[in-house]
């Protein structure tokens, strides 16, 4: 029986350790005093375990390097993951109207962590808490163990790295492993914030702070190609956030490094301009704002009408020019995005170790023999909705299976 070291006790590392433990002696090294610290934050603390879409549909939700994930996703699918948790008596729910997201029935991430931890203990995985790995032991392009902070050498036949990215640094994702891997000849593709709130240049949107909109369409052009996403959003003092904004941020993060990006927001994607025009003039004797009651939140409409200086305008006094201004703001709102809140505020790290240097069928490094990489440390990221957690579980499972 060979020995395997897994570095990182997040979802990917726990799954890698668990899978490897079926055939090997496994040591799981975690720098915190608990497992799954970042997992507790997913889904707003509710734990968005995965997504219930068909696994074939997951690839369209991957932003970077989707082809790399074919072996991982099909070796350990979302159905496999849910079957595993069901076998451990975890109750979950599928929110069909919320992009088919899967949550624990109790809305508690701790249930997921407790199951994984319990299974690790049952499978005799040795867990080393409060232990920081500061280097790998590599000779002749082959890994043979790790060096911890107190300069202790721990030897093993195989090493799996599941240390995450640089998002949520307080959970231990400080990017140290990137430096270690670069030192040992791996290529680090530039890091960007993914699934991050966006900052907006226009100052007038501060009047909309705290207002939420449902099922809006946000679009922009990237290299002459239109990217369009539909979902919920929230106005904030710095700009905009919410699920659809976070998703859009992952597509424009590289552009924002050198330029501003114009975002177009259709607040009523299911209402045509003609129908909106009719609604605006439905009751000639009413205030124009009241005619739109029911279509959008009143506090949002009030904010927009204040910006346009049309709050007290009667319908029978509304000029065609002002009607077009209202429609423009509701159907074709132009916002100048000048950045994001950065990698520390992002849910996921975009960029990481190049997929060209990893065997996608086994997750083994092509640079260092017997070294495996999983999850967010690799240059792969996806939209919000449980897809990134599935990437973590799937790549972790494949690595654990392959050692």
UniProtKB/TrEMBL annotation:
Pfam families per record: HI0933_like, HI0933_like_1st
Key words of the record: FAD, Flavoprotein
InterPro entries assigned: BaiN-like, BaiN-like_dom_sf, FAD/NAD-bd_sf, RsdA/BaiN/AoA(So)-like_dom, RsdA/BaiN/AoA(So)_Rossmann
Domain RsdA/BaiN/AoA(So)-like Rossmann fold-like: 3-400
Tagged with keyword Flavoprotein: yes
Sequence ranges assigned to domain RsdA/BaiN/AoA(So)-like insert in this UniProt record: 192-348
Gene3D superfamilies cross-referenced by the UniProt entry: FAD/NAD(P)-binding domain, HI0933 insert domain-like, Translation factors
Domain of life: Bacteria
Cofactor(s) in the UniProt record: FAD
Protein name (record): NAD(P)/FAD-dependent oxidoreductase
């Amino acid at each position: 029986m060979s020995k395997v070291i897994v570095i990182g006790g997040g979802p990917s590392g726990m799954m890698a350790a668990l899978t490897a433990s079926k055939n090997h002696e496994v040591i799981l090294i975690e720098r915190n005093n608990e497992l799954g610290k970042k997992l507790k934050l997913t889904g707003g603390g509710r734990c968005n375990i995965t997504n219930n879409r068909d696994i074939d549909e997951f690839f369209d939700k991957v932003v970077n390097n989707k082809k790399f994930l074919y072996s991982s996703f099909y070796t350990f699918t979302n159905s496999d993951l849910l079957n595993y948790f069901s076998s451990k008596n975890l109750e979950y729910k599928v929110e069909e109207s919320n992009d088919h997201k899967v949550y624990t029935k109790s809305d508690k991430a701790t249930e997921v962590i407790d199951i994984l931890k319990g299974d690790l203990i049952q499978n005799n995985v040795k867990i080393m808490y409060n232990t920081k790995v500061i280097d790998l032991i590599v000779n002749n392009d082959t890994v043979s163990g790790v060096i911890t902070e107190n300069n202790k050498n721990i030897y093993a036949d195989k090493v799996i790295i599941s240390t995450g990215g640089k998002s949520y640094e307080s959970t231990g994702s400080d990017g140290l492993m990137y430096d270690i891997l670069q030192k040992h000849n791996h290529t680090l593709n530039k890091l960007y914030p993914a699934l991050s709130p966006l900052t907006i240049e226009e100052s007038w949107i501060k009047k909309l702070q705290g207002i939420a909109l449902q099922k809006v369409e946000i679009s922009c052009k990237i290299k002459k190609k239109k990217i369009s996403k539909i979902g919920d959003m929230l106005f904030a003092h710095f700009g905009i956030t919410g699920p659809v904004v976070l998703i859009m941020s992952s597509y424009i993060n590289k552009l924002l490094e050198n330029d501003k990006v114009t975002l177009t927001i259709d607040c009523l994607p299911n209402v045509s301009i003609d129908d909106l025009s009719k609604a605006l003039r439905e009751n000639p004797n009413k205030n124009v704002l009241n005619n739109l009651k029911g279509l959008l939140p009143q506090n949002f409409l009030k904010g927009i009408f204040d910006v346009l200086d049309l709050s007290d305008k009667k319908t029978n006094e509304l000029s065609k020019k002002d009607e077009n201004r209202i429609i423009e703001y509701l159907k074709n709102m132009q916002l100048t995005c000048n950045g994001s809140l950065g990698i520390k505020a992002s849910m996921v790290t975009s960029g990481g170790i190049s997929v060209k240097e990893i065997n996608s069928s086994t997750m083994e490094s092509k640079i260092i023999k017997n070294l495996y990489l999983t999850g967010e440390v690799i240059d792969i990221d996806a939209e919000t909705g449980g897809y990134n957690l599935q990437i973590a579980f799937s790549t972790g499972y494949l690595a654990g299976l392959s050692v």
